[in-house]
Each structure stands twice: as C-alpha cells, then as structure tokens.
Design a protein that fits this description.
heterodimer, A: about 190 residues, 6 helices, globular, B: alpha+beta, six-stranded antiparallel sheet, five-stranded antiparallel sheet, 46 helices, transport (chain A)
Chain lengths: ~190, ~1250
Amino acid sequence: MIKAILIFNNHGKPRLIRFYQYFAEDMQQQIIRETFHLVSKRDDNVCNFLEGGSLIGGSDYKLIYRHYATLYFVFCVDSSESELGILDLIQVFVETLDKCFENVCELDLIFHMDKVHNILQEVVMGGMVLETNMNEIVAQVELQNRMEKSEGGLSAAPARAVSAVKNMNLPEIPRNINIGDINIKVPSLSPF
Amino acid sequence: MALKIVKGSIDRMFDKNLQDLVRGIRNHKEDEAKYISTCIDEIKQELKQDNIAVNANAVCKLTYLQMLGYDVSWAAFNIVEVMSSSKFTYKRIGYLAASQCFHEGTDVIMLTTNQIRKDLSSPNQYDTGVALTGLSCFVTPDLARDLANDIMTLMSHTKPYIRKKAVLIMYKVFLKYPESLRPAFPRLKEKLEDPDPGVQSAAVNVICELARRNPKNYLSLAPLFFKLMTSSTNNWVLIKIIKLFGALTPLEPRLGKKLIEPLTNLIHSTSAMSLLYECVNTVIAVLISLSSGMPNHSASIQLCVQKLRILIEDSDQNLKYLGLLAMSKILKTHPKSVQSHKDLILQCLDDKDESIRLRALDLLYGMVSKKNLMEIVKKLMLHVDKAEGTTYRDELLTKIIDICSQSNYQYITNFEWYISILVELTRLEGTRHGHLIASQMLDVAIRVKAIRCFAVAQMATLLDNAHLLTGNTQRNGICEVLYAAAWICGEFSEHLEDPMQTLEAMLRPKVATLPGHIQAVYVQNAAKLFATVLQKHEGETDSQVAQETSQLLVERLPLFVQSANLEVQERASCILQLVKYIQKLQQKNVEVADEVTALFAGELNPVAPKAQKKVPIPEGLNLDAWINDPPSESESEDEKPKAIFAKEEPKHSRSKHTEVDEKELARRREARKQEQANNPFYIKASPSSQKGFDAPGVEHIPVVQIDLSVPLKVPGMPMSDQYVKLEEERRQKDKADKKKKEKKKKREKRGKGRKADSGPESEEDITPAHQVDIVTEEMPENALPSDDDDKDPNDPHKALDIDLDKPLADSEKLPVRTHRPEMLKSPAEDRDGEAAPQESKKKSSKDKKEKKEKDRKRSKEEKKKKKKHKEVEEEPVESQPEEAVQSEETKEVSAPPTSTSAEASDLDFWLSSAPVPHVAQEVTAPPSAAAEDTSSAAALESEPDERKDTEPEDTKSSKHKKKKQKKEKEEKDKKKKKRHHHHHHHHHHHSDVGEDSVQNGTVEEEEPLPPMSNFSLLAENAYIKMVCDIQGNHQDESKVVVSVIFENKCSSFLKSMEFNVLDSLNSKLQRPEGAGPHDSLTVPFQLPPGVSNEARFVFTVQSIVMPQKLKGTLTFIVKSDDSSTHEKLDFKLHFTCTSYLITTPCYSDAYAKLLESGDLKGSSLRLEGINMPFHHLLARICFHHHFSVVERIDSCASMYSRSIQGHHVCLLVKTADQTVSIDAKCDEPSLLGNVLDEIKETFSKC
C-alpha cells in the first residue's frame, strides 16, 4: 500500500499532497516538513530509499523518492510494495505528466494542481496501484478532459478567453526538457 | 435562458479562479497569510451564491488552500453539493475536494450515500470512476456497508476501466466492513482471470494485500497463483504474486519446494532488476521455511548470495541498498554464506549514503562471532567518533549495544572490555540513548557477578566525574548513566575501594540539578553506602570515620529534603531521620552497623520482562467469578436466559468455585509462599540471605592505568582499545598453553555454567577471560510458553482474518437497500430503489440477471469443488479393491466432515504433485460447460505436468504411487461425469434446483470426526443402486430437492432411465410444463458399467410438519452386447422432517431475542448411553439434522435451524456422563416432535 504521495520543490513548498490515510492539516504540514528535511539533505547520487521518518508510519514504511530538477516526488509505502517497482511508477507518473502537459515543468504543477490530481488518480487509487501502462493512463485522462470540454461548451468560452488574456502577462516560461532521462528542468524559477 | 447563462459566465470571468489564486499568493509573498484570509472570505461569499459553477470554482480553490495547510472542513457541506452536480466537470472537483479533506470524522459523509450510489450506477463510466476514486479515500464503515453490494456489482461491469477500480476499492470496503469479505470473495477470485490485464492486476493486488495480513486463509489459492505466475508476463503482477508467495511459504514448506525451480528460472531469465530482486527475496523466504528439513539447497543459497553480491557491488546505490536488505534476510538462517562477504559489508560502512550504512550495520549484527566481536566493535567506535549527525550516531550506538548484548552476551569474552566500551559511549555528545547505556550497565553488573568489582570501580569514577557528563546544563539523555552508576555503586558497595569518597561524590550540591528520578536513586544509594561505611569502620577502635560519615549525611541531606520532587523529598527525609537517630546511638557507642546493613540485605535478581504476564493462573482460580455475590438484580438477570428452557437442572450453579476445601487452601497458600520466596519484589519474611558475595576465584585483571593525557576523556577511564590488545595477547597465550596441554593430555572439559556456544569453527579456542556466570532472568514457575503477546489488538486487518474456504451461508449476503427491512426476500428482487433513474433501472435489472446467472455458476462450481474434495478424501477407502462394492458405496457417500479440511486436502493434492495426465485434453468438454469452469479445472490439473521433474525429490513408495494413479484415473472419470452433469443442468433448466447445497460450516475442528454422510440407501438391485439426499430449498418455501446418485453395478450399459413417483396430496414431483401428473421424468444421462452419476429432482410440499413416504419406480434398459432388457426398481422416498430444515446461522443475541419472544413451544428429549465426545455429538446434529451451533459453553450448546417455511427450531443440548438432554423450542410443536424423534433415531443407530 502507498500511504502518501508528496510532491514538493527544492525549497519544501508543497506542489501536490495526497494522503491515503487521514492526518489533520497541521500534521500533514509537519509531515511534509519532516520529509523535506530528510530528503533534501541527501545527495543526488545516494540511494532513493529512506527508512521512514518518525511521523509517517513505523518500521514497515519506507520513503521512496525521485528528484527531478526542482521537484521531489516522494512516495511513502509499506513493505508490500516493491521498492524498484515504485521507482518505476514514479517515472511512469512523471512521464505521463510530461505527455499530458506537453513538456511539463514546475509551473504546470503550480497552476494546475487539480489536473495533476486527476492524472494521479488514474495511476494510484486509494493507496493501491491502479494502472502502470502510460498509454492507458493518458488515454483515460484525455477522454475525461474532452468530456469536460464538451460540457463547458459555449458558456465556458468567455471564461477561457479571459483566462488566456490573464495568462498573457505571465513571464515566459522556459521549458526545456530532455525526454531521454525525463528531467523537469526549470532553471531560474524563483520559489515562492 | 441562454442569455442568463452567458451573463452568468461573464460575471464569473471576473471571479478568481484557481490560477488567479495561485498567482495572487505568489505576488503577496510578504503578507501571504493576510492575502489568503481575504481569499477565504471571498470564497465564503462565492459559496453562498446559488450558482454551481461558482461554487465549484470556490471548492477548487479550497482544495489548493488545503494543500497549504488550511483547514477547510467548514466547507464540507458545499463540497457535497458540488459532488452532486450533474456535470462531470463539477462533480470531479467535488470528489477531489472530498477525497482530500473528508475522513471518518466528517459528519456530512452520511449525506453522501445516495449520491454516491447514484453516481456508481451512472451510465457515464467516468461519473462512476470519479465516484469510486473519491470513495476509496473516504470510505467509512457505514458507506462500506451500504455500498458494498453496488460495488460488488460493478466488479462485473462491462468496462474494464470500471471493473479494475471496483476491484481495487473492494479492499477498502473489506477493511471497513469485514463482513463483506466472504460474500464478495468468490467474485474477486474470478477477477484473477479477467481478460483485461488491468483488472487482473488489480485483483492480484487486492488479494495480495489481504493475504499479506492473514496468509493462512489464502493458501488454497496457491495453485491459481502458481498458474498466474508461470503464465503472466506483466512484471507488476509477477512481483505481487512472488511477494505473496513469500508470505505463504512459511506456512507451507511444500509450496516452497514447488516454487524454487520456477523462481530460479526467473532469476536466470529476467532482465528486470525489480523482478529479479523479488525472486531472490522469495527464494530466501522459501529457504528459510525449508531450512529445518532440507539441507541440500546450498545451490540456491549460493545463487542468491551471488546475485546479491552483484547488486551490492553495483554502482547504483538503490541496488546496493536492496542487496544489503535482502542479505540481512539470508543472514538469519544461513549466516555462514553471508559471513564470507564480510569485507564487502564493512566496506559499505564507509559509504557516503546513510541508508546504506544503516543497512550494513544491520548485517554486522548477525556477522559477529567471539573471534571478531572486538574488532568489529572497534571499527564501529571509530565511526561513532567521526559520525556527523546525531541520528546516525545514535543508530551506531544502539547497534553496538545490540551487537554486544545479542543472545545473552553470547559473543562477549571479556566483560571488562564491554564495560569500558559502555563507559566510552557515555562520552558521546548529545545522544538520546543514555537510558540504553544505563540499562546495559545495570544488566551486566547484575547478571555477571564476576564483573561487579570492576564495574563498581568504573562507576565510582563516573560518579566522581559526573560534572563532565552533565557538563553544559542538563543535556538530557546521557545523565541517565548516572542513575545506573549510583545504583551499582550502592548495591555492590562492598567492592568499593573507597566508599567514603564515592559517598561524598554522590552528595555534592551539584547533584540537585539532576532529574528527580536520578536524585532519588542517589539518595537511596547514599544510604546503602553509608551502611557499608559503618560496617567497615565500626569494628575499629576509633569510630571517627563512622561518625564523620554520619555527620556528612546530616549536613548534605537537607538539600534533598527541599527537593521539588516528591520521591526525592520523601526518601531524603526518611533517611535523614534515620541517620540522625544512628548518630545519637553512635554517640552512645552503640553498635548499629549490623542493623543498618540489614536494611539493605538480600540480593536483587533480574526479572524477565514478560514475567508478570506469564504467571500462570493457579488451578481453581476463576478470575471471572464474583468475589462477593453480585447485587441481587443482576443475579436474576444472569439466570434469566437459562430459565427459558423448561426443565433446568439446578446443577449449573456456580457453587463449583466455592467448594474448595481447607486442604486445597492450605496447599495454595504454601504455593504462594513459595512463589513469593522466589520473587525478588517480595520482601521476605526472614532475612535469609545475607548480602554475601559469592563469586570467588575470579582472575583479577589489574585495573588499567589512568590515561590522563587523552583530552576530553574522563580521567581514570580505561580505554577499550587496550583490551583489544590485551585480549589478543591473552588469546595467543591461551593458545600456546593449550597446545602444551594438548600435548600432555586431551582437552579438558571447560568449566562451569557458561552457556554453550554455537559460534562458528574455531570459536571454542577462545576462552572467555572471566569464568562468568550469566544469571538468567527470572520467570515465574510453570510459566506458560506463549508467543502471542506481541500482536497488536488494534490492527484493522485482524478483522479480516476470515476463513474464505467455508461455503457461503444463507445469511451471508451483502446488505441491500430496501424500502423497509424485509429479510426473506432475495437480494435480486429489491435491488433498485426509487431514487434510481429509469435507465439505470433497466440496466440494473440486466445486471441482476447476470448476477443471478453468475451466482448459479458459482454455486455449481463450489459444488463441484466439494465433490472433488470428496474424492480426495476417499482415497484410503479405495485401496481395498476386494470390497469393491462396499467401498464404492462409501465413496459416493462419504462427504467430508468439514469443508475446510476438504480445501486443505485439495491443496495437499496439488502440492503432492503426482504425475497426472493432462485431463483437460482427454475429456472433450461439452461446449455448454462454462468456459471459466474449464479453465479453472485446467488450472488445477495442468500443474503437475509441468512439475514432473521436481518429482524425484519426493521419495514415495511405488505402492503409494500406484494408489495415486488409480485415484487419478478415478478422478478423470469423475470429471467426465461432472461435465455431463453440468451439461444436463443446462439443458433441463432446473434453474432452481438446489442452488446451494447446504453445508455444515459449523463443525468444530477439535478431533477428526468420523466420516458422515447424508446420503441414505434408496433402493438397490443387481443392476443399479440408488442413494439419495433430501435438502430443503432456500429460495422457495415449498420446494425440496432430492439428489439421487445412480450407480451402475453391473457390466452392462444402463440407459433410458425414467424416474417416477406417485404423488400424494401433500407432496408432488415437479414435472416439466405440459407433462401429465403421472408422467415419469427422464434421467438425463446414461450409465456405462461401474459409473455413477447424480440427478436432482424437485418436489413441492404443502405441509412440512409431518414426515412422509412416497412410493416411486425407476425403469431403465439394460443394454449388453447382445441383448437389452427392460428392468424396474421400486423405492420409497422418505421425507423426514429434518429434510425440511435448512442450516441457518444465528447470532446469539438474535437467538436470545427469539427465545424471549415467547412464541415458541417447548419439548425435550433425553438420550442415554451416548458415548461420544460432545463436539462429535454436535457435529452429528449439525450434519444430519441441518442445525448450526449458536453458542457452546463447555458441555452445553445452543443450536438453531430454520425450516423452509420459516419455522424456528432451537435446541439446548447438554451432556453429563453419557446422558444427553435436549431441550427444544419451536413455533410448530408437531414439527419439533418429529425432528426430535429423528434425532433420537440418529443416535440410536450409533
């Protein structure tokens, strides 16, 4: 079982949190802080497993994480999950994000947390791995998005236009991606 | 209207959406909190609007704020509103918000039940999907109960997308509502073979998750998983299955044997590291489970270790980590194979990665021996010194202590070395583990008597230098060591060289800054030291020293009397008064030393941590019995339920417990005294043991010189390193000595008491420096060995420990929504409620049909299985061919006593892997047989084929094999027949023929029961034999199903069998439509020689209160090679009242209510001379008369059954020396009378 999925940036700002076990909000924040603290002080060339922090789970739990450019993807899992399998799963998830957002970068996660959640829900459900086939995940996400669009129809058009106008004065987002080893690289992005 | 919408959306575009919110927060870095609070105000305004789009937008923003740590539970109701929007866009937002912030305590959850149900049955698969995903995050026990049935239906949805989600969520439902597990499990099992890989993977996932917690209940699935493992190519599924096998093998070593080969193949063939790693892991688990019985698996171990070494040497840190992790598992059972890689592991200690270092540390734990302990610990001490970060240092510290103290200090040869290691560890800056070090010091000093002298000296130095430990104020943790030091110095003060000085050190004013509990120990032990000083100096002519000591105490103790800590205060004032009194006596020159010493006489022995728990309850002590009689009202209440049965013998009172005679009491008192005498926590009656020191003859190693030059070290402390050198020298000397000795004579047997060492090879060459006697911890006498004390009672998975092999009982259905509770209706009839929209109604009715069909199939399958077990069970009977006829009969007839044992025997069969020919190919399955059926049968049968090569390992006598083969042949035949049978069912639409054959799941498993069968002989002649069993039908209150097994006894072919019964007014054979009332029914099969088969006939009955007999005839044609004759056989079908009863489980509270209702009339029965165990008796009643046990207390049991027309039958069965009395109640007296007569008859037969 997966107990929690956390995505935060190099400064510990949460970008997505998904707990499959109930924790009160302040506890959630504490867990994020602790996890960030544990993970951030590790070099990039050490192993991706961490025996769980004291807050989340006991000895049965592990933190399995990957670090992509500015973002940490951390999964907290118990011993029923295969460590290497979860690492693969994180990769699948990130590649899926990359496909759905067309060259994903941290800004996508910042502004579209809801969409990231919707994608994640096609990968993991209630703490159990739902689908590992990227094409299948992307297909389902796209079908749902299409449905959403068709529902929006005419009445959503003005809102979309406004949103486009609003986005115009966004600083141009540098997006460079190299798909070889999927790196979400957003250089010089100031954290908030 | 359209205008309004457009206008609304134009208004809306100036509302803040999520992106605006995020942007806003980014632009208000300085006053983020303030900005967010204004946003929340806006959101509150938006939520008040009557526009779902605005609400949804607000909820979406709240979800974001929730991530930032803001509590948004106040908007729970708005979230529910958005969830119930008809638009997918908003619904999704609502469910997302709910899944992020709803939990079991959210009260609005109970409002969602209907909404979720509606979404689950939505024609749009994404509505359903979103609802399932959301539900998986916030399902509560109530939701699980109310929706379990809907979700179960979705498991057979046409879309794989929904199926896989429904399958996965079932796990959550099981967790919250364990009762759903058994009814849903068959379908879940079906999904293991779903055509869609995603669904299959989900099912594997769920079952693995379930099995991990309660593996024993899933052993019977092993063959199925084995098949999946050998056929699947999906690595995710494979990994899960292999992990599952890892959990199952410890329970069934034979499974392990079967697994080794395919796993080894996978290890060699796979390129996926994750899969390789899991295979290695499971092979290790298998080897562990086999380790006792199978020594010759060294090849597999070597393979594993070798693969792991490759992982550890890999540059990928992840693989290195996992390699070490798996290595530690091998270590437990095969330490030697790991020890050869010590170099590699020590190398990992230097790794820059903390996770890897920790893993390597774990491994070291298992790798130490007497020989290398000092060396390894030395290396670790070096790491301690240079470790940065307290967590890792603390970890090192605990590991050092773990390594040294493991298995009762097995590897320590020199305890002085160990004490000095502990003392060195006290110098660690800011460790949390002072307590751990302290308890080690105490443990060693108490249990290793020989070391006390040295330990006391060390502790005295520690106390003297306490300021170094407490240095900068109260760095918590390490000062705990002083607790131990003070106690050891006080308790073993006779070893102190200068007790006066230590006493002085313990009473320094600085001590008052220590934590209270340590001060308390200081004060108490100061008193002990005082006693020692008195003792030492009193004999001397000049009593100066003694008086000075008293003076010192009188001066210093008041400091402690003022302590804020109660414990310190109390002890200090008590001791102060005592000393003052002694001082007075001293001035009068009275000798007091002996009396003062007597205060602290007696030795404190270590007590095992579990000792208290293990004290056995003395015989005759009933902890549940009242000590005083309870208040009268509750007493009458207590008696009430029993009084319901008419003739209650007064024997059952609880006088049993009070009639203990005087002798017994005296004996117990004696025993208690004995126990107290052995318990160190009891103050003994007589000062029996003076505090004497009884460890003579210890070679005394001179106390090592003080090394003052070392900075930052406590002066006066020995360095453990020196011991390493010393030890080496000593060993060399020992060796030399030994050689000399050996030349003279053979090696002597080593001295007393040291625990037998099981260390490797040359271990025994190392003699311990001290002949130590490690005192073992005390346990109460006759402590019961039990290991069940570490289970967590709060584990939610405990509730899922459910036997899944028992057939489903009638009452085990998922709750279905009804307008008003109507228990008797079948679930299919009242499925759709008023709220469901029209289309979904249609759909659900379709589902219903499907479900019914499925159910039927399933029950058939179950039946088949059951039959199959039967065959396996009968095996021994068949080995007597000369009694062919006889055995044939028992074969058909003997049903397994319990279904669980049947399952087990099925597994046994699979595991015993005899070469079975591929049946599936030989038998041409009729096309109508359900496909899944064939495949599951094939699953079972095709296995052994592949495993022929592993066979030779099983050394079995050829005789045994023959028997097996015969059995298999038998089985083949059976299968053929079964197919037939199935076929027949399909064509004749006996749709309501005994869907569920009643099984007895209630039989207890205390002793093996004699085989029992409900089949009784119907009629027999030279050609054919008929046995039959009559069962009531659950679904229909007027139908009874008669299963008749026809067996061809002659060497000719029997065909055109026609079955007819002469109907009575009350009972009629059900004939196909259009047939006349006297037409006979064609038996739907033919019988080749020696073959038997079963047919079922349905009867309708009006009244069930009386037994009755029906006359019938079977006509058939006997066809031999040359001729054919027409034959007939008459029979009498006996409908007993028992056959109208259906095994129905009943909970005790419902049972009690039933009895209290007063609608039932009573009757009773007494059976004499019954000579069988009580549980056999119960099992018989259950089996033959379709009862179930409600509750059983000792030799008294309540039982329940229900007739097909809904009469309740309750029994209270009691037994006392060969007499069984049955009190019975039923709402139909004549039915009851007849049932009792039948029970009587059953027992008169045996």
